[in-house]
Structures are given as C-alpha cells and as structure tokens.
Amino acid sequence: MDPHTEGMDRAVVSQAELQPIPHAIAAGIAPASTAMLTLARMEIGGLKFVMPLADIAAVIEPTAMEARDDDPYGIWIGHVTSQQGVISIASGSALIRTANKAVPPGRIAILRGDFPVGLAVDRMLSALTINREDMFSLPAFVPAIQGCPVTAAFWGEHDELELMLDRKTLIEELDAGLLGPGQMSGASRYSQQKLLDRYSDVDYQRGLEVRFNASPERWVLPMSAVRLVTDARAPHPLPRTPEKVTGLVSWQRHPIPVIDPSSTLELSDPVALPAKFVVIGEPVKGGQTSTQADAALLVDRIIGIHNRLRIEHGYAWDATGEALNLLRITDALS
C-alpha cells in the first residue's frame, strides 16, 4: 500500500468499552518514568477525551453536588463543599460545546489549580499509561481549530484517536468568563500569522481544478501544496470549532483537520459524503516532494490539473482563456 494513503484508510473512531477507574483518585500519583504519561480517560457529550492523571485531584459522585440552573450558558451547574471550601462545577459538555448535552453528569472530576474546579463528565473510563513520544500535536497553522481546548492526540490501545484536554486552558477560560462566543484568542492570532507566513506566497500557476455541487463556478488549488487526492472518510469529531471544521482524520498516523471550504466560499450547501479529500501542506518548489500535511479539504469533484494558468486580478485563466476562482488556502484554514 502507498504510504501516503495508508493513514487515510485508517478508521479513527471505535466504540470500545473500558472499565471505569475508581471513584476517587489519590493525590500525588506520578508515572515511574518521565518518558511515560498516565492519563485519565473520560466521556463528555458522547465523545472520549483524556487528561493527565496528575491534573485530577479526585473523582466524585454527582450526588455530592448542589445543583444550580441560573447560568445563561449552562456552564456552571452546581457546587460542592470540601475542606478547601466551595468548589464550582462546570458542565463538560457545555464547556467543550459537544453536540450532545442531554446526558446527565455521571461523575465529577476535580481539576487541580490554585482554585480547583469540578468538571462534570458522562463517565470516567480506565486510566492508561503511554509514552510521551506517542503523542502528536495538532497542526499549529490552522487557526480554525485553535478554539478547541485540545492540545494533542494519540492512538489508543484499541487503535482509536484519543484527544488530550488542556486543564490550564479550561480553567483560564472559566476564570476569565470566556463562556459564550468570544474574540479570537492570542493563540489563534499567532496561528493566523503563521498561516500567512506559510501560504501567502503560494504559486497558483500550476493548479488543481475542483468543483462544488452547490456552485457552477470553477475553483483551483495550487498543486505545490497538494499532497494527495483520495476518497473522503468520516472524520473524528473535534468539538468547539467552526462549522467548517468537520473533524480529524489520520495522515500517516498524525491527526489533521478536515475543512469544508463551502462556508468560506459562501456556497449554499456544505460538502456531503461521498466526497473527495484534497490533502494540503506547506508549498514545495517544482520537482520537490513532501509528506508533511496540515489539513484535508473537502470538495465534491476533482476535474484535473492545469499546468500553465495565468494569474491576474485575483483569478486564474486557463489555456482557453476561461477564468477560474482561486481557492485560497489561507481563507479555508482560517
């Protein structure tokens, strides 16, 4: 099998059931080696996440919580009283903005911090110890995914993609009151600049023509950034991202986001499966190759390659003099 397509063909989601971890986690547990990382696994809004075990002080029953329902965003759902004082409880599904918010809390994970907070989850799953080298960071050049409090991912023991929640980011958002739709974060602004540095000077003179069912227009992507064209796969969900981010897929066992550019192009309908993936990465010069990729763009149809496009006034002109629209990568990934 072609190594470029092997990762794309891998299923990234499984529904393997795991045994729950104990209701309370003793403080101070550390992995035997700094190369290893012990993770607590949890289900939130029907999706599975992990967090370093050292970030969780305890896991308690929801019966210990005194409920509240006066938060307009549905984030703060109650509190518990401990020897350290009152600990506020946040709804994990509302905070992460998963599609499924109807499941009542099954457990409450108390997150460590100067002022601990509780995170209500559907359920806790078994703990797992992995090698830190097995973790992959999400692409830093895609601002559209920076709103998700997921810092990394790894392949679990059942060969499913596990998403790492960042405790610090969650607590900082709760402390700052960033509970509703807010401004672009500093991380996203940084990613936007890195994206512009990476793709702003891309050459469209050799381009891949693509089409969308919701538009009669012709669109072109720069071939220097195209890594692979293949049939689309159902992606792994990635919560709290713009609608155009449909999830994650594997590229050579690294997670990359799937982007539907139809909203950026102001098309009437999104791209629906079956569709095509156009995997893109940092542009390379003519004659060079690269296996690095940043994202997979969803398109309905692949028309073919144009080797000598003329670029003028924001359009590409083919050999017959007909115009094509430039599908700008910087816009699609923003």
Condensed summary:
With 334 residues, this protein is mostly beta strands. The chain has five helices and 23 strands.
Features:
334 residues; mainly beta; OB fold (Dihydrolipoamide Acetyltransferase, E2P); 6-stranded mixed beta sheet; 5 helices; 37% strand; elongated
Topology:
Elements lengths: L2 H4 L29 E9 L2 E6 L3 E5 L5 E2 L8 E7 L2 E7 H5 L10 E5 L5 E5 L1 E9 L4 E2 L12 E6 L5 E5 L1 H10 L9 H14 L7 E5 L7 E4 L3 E6 L13 E7 L2 E6 L16 E5 L14 E5 L1 E6 L3 E3 L2 E3 L5 E4 L2 H5 L1
Poorly predicted spans: 1-32
**Element order, helices and strands?**
HEEEEEEHEEEEEEHHEEEEEEEEEEEH
Query: What is the makeup of the main sheet?
Result: 6 strands, mixed
Estimate the helix proportion, in percent: 10-25%
- At CATH level 3, the topology of the largest domain is OB fold (Dihydrolipoamide Acetyltransferase, E2P)
* Straight-line N-to-C gap: 33 Å
Strand order of the largest sheet: 9-1-2-12-11-10
CA radius of gyration: 22 Å
CATH class of the largest domain reads Mainly Beta
The percent range for strand residues is 35-45%
State mean pLDDT (0 to 100 scale).
Answer: 83
Total domain units: 2
CATH architecture assignment name of the largest domain? Beta Barrel
Question: What is the H level of CATH, i.e. the homologous superfamily of the largest domain?
Answer: CheA-289, Domain 4
Strand tally: 23
Structural class of the secondary structure composition? mainly beta
Net shape: elongated
Explain this structure.
By secondary structure, the protein is mainly beta. The protein has two domains: 3-176, CheA-289, Domain 4 (OB fold (Dihydrolipoamide Acetyltransferase, E2P), Beta Barrel), CATH 2.40.50; 202-333, CheA-289, Domain 4 (OB fold (Dihydrolipoamide Acetyltransferase, E2P)), CATH 2.40.50. It is built from five helices and 23 strands. The protein has helices at residues 3-6, 92-96, 167-176, 186-199, 329-333; strands at residues 36-44, 47-52, 56-60, 66-67, 76-82, 85-91, 107-111, 117-121, 123-131, 136-137, 150-155, 161-165, 207-211, 219-222, 226-231, 245-251, 254-259, 276-280, 295-299, 301-306, 310-312, 315-317, 323-326. The two termini are 33 Å apart. The relative contact order is 0.15.
